[in-house]
Amino acid sequence: MFHHNNNALEDLNILGYPNLRIIPDCLYNLKDLQIGKCENLELQPHQLQGLTYLTSLKITNCENIKMPLSEWGLARSTSLKTLTISDYHHHHSLLLPTTLAELSFQASRICNPWLPVSPKAHLS
Fold first, then answer.
1. Among the listed residues 93, 48, 35, 92, the one whose alpha carbon sits nearest the alpha carbon of residue 74
2. Burial annotation 3-21 (CB, 10 A radius, 16+ → b, else e)
3. Residue 87: Cβ within 10 Å count
4. In which domain of life is the source organism classified (predicted)?
5. 102/82 Cα distance (integer angstroms)
6. Do residues 59 and 35 touch, judged by C-beta distance below 8 A?
7. From residue 23, how far is each of 36, 86, 93, 102, 123 by CA, in Å?
8. pTM, full prediction
9. CA–CA distance from 1 to each of 22, 24, 75, 93, 101 (Å)?
10. Quick check: 111 pLDDT over 50?
11. Where are the domains of the chain?
């Protein structure tokens, strides 16, 4: 699905690939990443932590992601402005980047409406 050298790619939408298990590690210049309806996707911490230019991240209906939000490395992001997560059912506290301007947690899978957020994080 991906070529090993995608250095120029800035926007990537992966929607409706229920059998997709991994995304490549070579997407360093992404600014916008949207992943949806990829029920078997298994993200690893290094895959998101390496996306230093990412300004928008939207992950929806990817029920097999077991990595806690706290391990996504989002607090270290210097570019992330928009974060949307839905159908994610792991309740862990997380630090948010200070660059974040828009935050959205959606859907009924988040059973606890009061997702614990670290007091060190803030929205500007």
1. 48
2. eeeeeeeeeeebeeeeebe
3. 18
4. Eukaryota
5. 5
6. yes
7. 13, 19, 25, 25, 29
8. 0.76
9. 11, 9, 30, 34, 32
10. no
11. 11-106
